[in-house]
Design a protein that fits this description.
The protein has three domains: 7-205, Rossmann fold, CATH 3.40.50; 217-383, Rossmann fold; 390-472, Alpha-Beta Plaits (2-Layer Sandwich), CATH 3.30.70. The two termini are 56 Å apart. The longest helix is centred in the N-terminal third of the chain and has 14 residues, at 82-95. Mean pLDDT is 87; it is low at 207-212. The strands form three sheets. A seven-stranded parallel beta sheet has the order 3-4-2-5-6-1-7. It has helices at 14-23, 30-40, 55-66, 82-95, 113-121, 130-138, 155-160, 164-172, 189-198, 229-240, 253-266, 281-292, 326-333, 354-363, 414-424, 451-460, and strands at 45-48, 75-78, 103-106, 125-128, 149-152, 179-184, 203-205, 217-223, 245-249, 272-275, 298-301, 314-319, 343-349, 368-370, 399-404, 432-437, 442-447, 470-472. It is built from 16 helices and 18 strands.
Length: 473
């Protein structure tokens, strides 16, 4: 396909060109370059878009360009979540520039009457979740029988959330003459089957189905025990020195609330907030609006912000907890490195989470590398002190390997070392793991719960007539 070096080489509305230039964008991303020409020509499109690739603009430009200012519904965009609907609506509203068309988001969890009023007053582009769109159609408020364009955003997520029957019902109420654009990170067979039913000889813009696509992000991880994760997070944040906004992901609402309290006490010169599922829709929208406008420096969130939160100013994402699924990891780190910007994603990994690191590296080939937690002398960081945590040195079974400077040359063998350790402290056989012995050094695995006791007992023992050195391997 012909390569487009700038947006103004496409025959699109001057209002859109002006809005893009005012935003400071010069060149389209790959998904925009590969998709927009097809979409502007009226062709149906099946596109695989990676996280943070600029796909909203890829379908937003042709959608806005095709609209005329007549207060009739011309474009319907379906999204899986309220947050994504709101984000898409906001992005299209700046993209339209001064073009006098109405664009708004329609979703559940808020009153339907104001939304009905907006439709009655006239609107050209609707961005909505399947459930609310169905409500509006059944109330005979929303007529989609004369659409110019139907767009499905994050179709794979809609499939995962069980929305496909709703999507099919909505499509059945639409017209066959419409143009259809379908964007998805992956293409399960159900989506391919649906595209065959709802699309007319679509063009395909696809990446390798086996490759996990991510933006230009430096992926780091540090092995750290759970009790020291707050210390590690503080050092990373202070080392970063807020050169952009920071987004921290946790797996639980309780941890989100705890971290917000801890860091708000320490970092008083920055705006810190949180986002989690128990918050009301209006409260979540307020936080997301402030974060997008740059009025929140540090946002701590559950996965509610992993999709649909498009903020160009996020330069650092920290996974306080690793998610349990690869796609969640990709969506989380995709909140940084957006629109060609460079970003850093740093994961704090306990021994129990190392299996996911192995999957990310060895199964999916992600370039995620181990780094030491940065040292930091900021006086505020002293609030978080590092505690001794043998979990950081243990394997998946909780065993820590100790090196002891005794070996075969002093008559030590496996049984003697085992009996010696057992004689020093009261310890279960199960708390002692593998043993290896060479001429001058022995290595023995001890369960993390007994390491302090074993080290202390060895250092005080004088059975060999000398001080015995012991160290963690």
């Amino acid at each position: 396909m012909e390569n487009k070096n700038s947006f103004d080489q496409w025959p699109i509305s001057k209002e859109i060109i002006t809005a893009i230039k005012d935003k400071g964008w010069s060149s389209p991303t790959d998904i925009q370059n590969d998709s927009i020409t097809f979409a502007l020509n009226g062709t149906d499109l099946l596109a695989q878009a990676k996280t943070g690739s600029g796909k909203t603009v890829a379908f937003g430009i042709p959608a806005i360009d095709r609209c005329i200012e007549d207060k009739s519904i011309q474009i319907l965009i379906l999204t899986p979540t309220r947050e994504l609907a709101s984000q898409v609506s906001e992005e299209l509203n700046w993209l339209k520039g001064t073009k006098r068309i109405e664009i708004d988001a329609f979703y559940g969890g808020v009153g339907i009457e104001p939304q009905i009023k907006k439709i009655e007053n006239g609107i050209e582009i609707i961005v909505g979740t399947p459930g609310r769109i169905i409500d509006l159609i059944r109330r005979n408020v929303l007529d989609i029988s004369k659409l110019k364009m139907l767009i499905l955003d994050e179709a794979d997520r809609m499939l995962d959330m069980g929305f496909f029957p709703d999507v099919q019902w909505i499509i059945s109420k639409s017209n066959d003459e419409r143009q259809t654009l379908l964007f998805s990170a992956t293409f399960p067979q159900e989506i391919l089957d649906l595209s065959g039913e709802m699309m007319n000889e679509p063009e395909h813009v696809l990446t390798s189905e086996f490759e996990v696509e991510i933006p230009d992000i430096s992926q780091k991880y540090s092995r750290i025990g759970r009790i020291n994760k707050s210390w590690a997070l503080s050092n990373i944040i202070f080392d970063f020195n807020f050169q952009g906004q920071v987004l921290v992901f946790c797996n639980t609402k309780r941890m989100v609330e705890m971290l917000e309290q801890r860091f708000s006490k320490v970092i008083k010169d920055k705006n810190i907030s949180s986002l989690q599922g128990d918050m009301s829709q209006s409260a979540r929208e307020k936080v997301m609006t402030k974060f997008k406008s740059g009025n929140i420096d540090l946002l701590i969130s559950t996965d509610v912000a992993a999709r649909g939160l498009h903020v160009d100013g996020v330069n650092l994402v920290v996974n306080y907890d690793l998610p349990n699924a690869v796609d969640s990891y990709v969506h989380r780190i995709g909140r940084t490195g957006r629109m060609g910007n460079f970003g850093v994603a740093w994961s704090l990994v306990s021994s129990e989470e190392m299996g996911m690191v192995s999957i990310l590296k060895n199964v999916h080939g992600l370039d995620i590398n181990e780094y030491e937690i940065p040292e930091n002398n900021d006086e505020k960081s002293q609030y978080f002190s590092r505690k001794k945590d043998w979990n950081e040195h243990s394997n998946l079974f909780g065993m820590v390997c100790l090196s002891i400077d005794v070996g075969l040359n002093e008559g030590i063998n496996h049984q003697k070392l085992f009996d010696w350790i057992k004689g020093l402290i009261r310890i279960s056989d199960l708390a002692i793991g593998s043993i290896s012995i060479n001429e001058s050094v022995s290595k023995i695995e001890i369960h993390q719960s007994k390491v302090d006791y074993v080290i202390g007992a060895i250092e005080k023992n004088k059975d060999l007539g000398r001080i015995v050195d012991v160290a963690v391997v």
